[in-house]
Design brief:
This protein is of the alpha/beta class. It has helices at 23-35, 71-78, 91-100, 135-138, 143-148, 165-180, 202-214, 300-318, 356-374; strands spanning 15-19, 40-44, 49-51, 68-70, 80-83, 102-105, 108-111, 114-117, 132-134, 156-161, 185-190, 218-220, 223-229, 232-237, 243-247, 250-253, 263-265, 270-273, 276-283, 288-290, 333-337, 343-347, 349-355. The protein binds flavin-adenine dinucleotide.
């Protein structure tokens, strides 16, 4: 059993219920298993498998199954139990669960000493219908097979909506797929902002815009998506409100994450609900906003750090000393891939920009580090 500073177990193993089965949840699970292998963990998630969503855009050239880890395997590897269910998270529910030290899921009452909520931030559904795809579709089908459903008409365009990191990563994979398979599609990017990758330092956006131009991708900034129907996409100019109808065989929608994080926490990751701190309920990942100087970006790296911290603080809180650790993680960098052969991002400091093969290597290293964690090998320094 690995040593955890300030953790002196008080009694027998504790019970932890984790709602969610994404990056934050699994990072917490691995840490609990590492520091206290007999912790009784129940993982509650509506799906059958953990999906490594940071790879989904790669399914235009790789198999989806490479990025799917069945919860059955996770149960065996980390000695936990998976319950297939979606749980409604509200302040009232959380306060009730804290009081009763348990929650009802279907016919079962799951009792716990500590609860961790890590349900991500969800993705708003912009539109649904034929030839409209969003992240949910990529969780069940490969990009390459979705492309086979797209009708090929004359003067065919594919419309990608969203100039944030996710939209850009999908855009360049789609462009590469079209190029490699010699498909007769042209590609357009529609984005409500005036530049792409708005959340990063402007140099990253400028690099991407030069790549868009090199690849012959049409870029419509300051433009809102309204509808895809009958081989046409309806768009609206953000400034003038003018509506235009353009040829479009399919629309790929990546509008970004849902608005505000669901839960506010203390410095230590405990949920604040109904004006009080719930000392038995922790939150981690995209659904949480931690108080203090630590990073609250909606990224896998922040989710993993919050999940690990929650696990350490749950154990310490259950122990004799009860000295908890504040959330201090600062992002170490971020890289956005631009197809299989290029990427752009920053490393160490936001002004320290990396592009091309070095950036791709950094991204691969980060992904490999997470794969090691899933194998139970924790190489994160913090
Ligand atoms: C295509 C793509 C590429 C990305 N690339 C990167 C990258 O390169 N680097 C990076 O740092 N970040 C990246 N991100 C962002 C990163 O994936 C997220 O920040 C990360 O997944 C957040 O982890 P999480 O655990 O909070 O939530 P998630 O990983 O979204 O997991 C949430 C889990 O909760 C479950 N759940 C949801 N609602 C309920 C409920 N009501 N009850 C029970 N369970 C529920 C879901 O089924 C899911 O398993 C990318 C995202 C996408 C979509």
């Amino acid at each position: 059993m690995a040593f955890l500073p300030f953790y002196v177990p008080a009694s027998g193993p504790i019970k932890v219920a984790i709602v969610g089965g994404g990056y934050a949840a699994l990072a917490a699970l691995v840490s609990l298993h590492r520091f206290s292998p007999y912790t009784g963990v129940t993982l509650i998630d509506p799906n059958d498998a953990h999906i490594k969503v940071t790879h989904l855009h790669e399914t235009f050239r790789r198999r989806l199954r490479e990025f799917v880890v069945p919860f059955e395997k996770i149960e065996q590897r980390f000695n936990c139990r998976h319950v297939r269910a979606a749980v409604e998270i509200t302040d009232e529910n959380l306060m009730e669960w804290q009081e009763h030290r348990g929650l009802a899921v279907g016919d079962e009452f799951i009792d716990f000493d500590y609860l961790l909520v890590a349900i991500g931030s969800g993705t708003p559904r912009l539109d649904q219908g034929d030839a409209i795809y969003d992240l949910r579709d990529f969780m069940i089908a490969e990009g390459s097979s979705l492309m086979q459903q797209v009708p090929i008409d004359g003067d065919a365009f594919l419309t990608v909506v969203g100039g944030g990191a996710t939209g850009i990563q999908f855009l360049f994979e789609i462009a590469e797929f079209v190029r490699v398979h010699k498909l007769p599609f042209r590609i357009r990017l529609v984005d409500g902002e005036d530049t792409v990758l708005k959340q990063f330092t402007p140099a990253l956006g400028r690099y991407v815009e030069s790549r868009l131009s090199d690849a012959g991708i049409e870029h419509l900034p300051r433009t809102f998506y309204r509808k895809q129907e009958g081989g046409q996409v309806r768009l609206e100019n953000r400034d003038t409100g003018d509506v235009m109808e353009l040829n479009s065989s399919a629309a790929f929608l990546f509008p970004g994450k849902a608005s505000d994080p669901l839960l506010n926490t203390t410095f230590f990751g405990q949920v604040v609900a109904g004006g009080r701190v719930l000392d038995r309920v922790f939150a981690a990942g995209d659904c949480s906003h931690h108080r203090g100087v630590g990073s609250n970006t909606v990224t896998a790296q922040a989710a993993v750090r919050k999940g690990k911290l929650a696990a350490r603080n749950i154990l310490r809180s259950s122990g004799r000393l009860k000295v908890l650790e504040p959330y201090l993680h600062r992002d170490l960098g971020d890289v956005v891939s631009l197809g299989p052969n290029d990427a752009i991002g920053w490393l160490g400091l936001e002004g320290n920009i990396v592009a091309g093969v070095p950036a791709l290597v950094v991204k691969e290293l980060v992904e490999a580090q997470y794969d090691l964690l899933m194998a139970g090998i924790d190489t994160y320094l913090i």
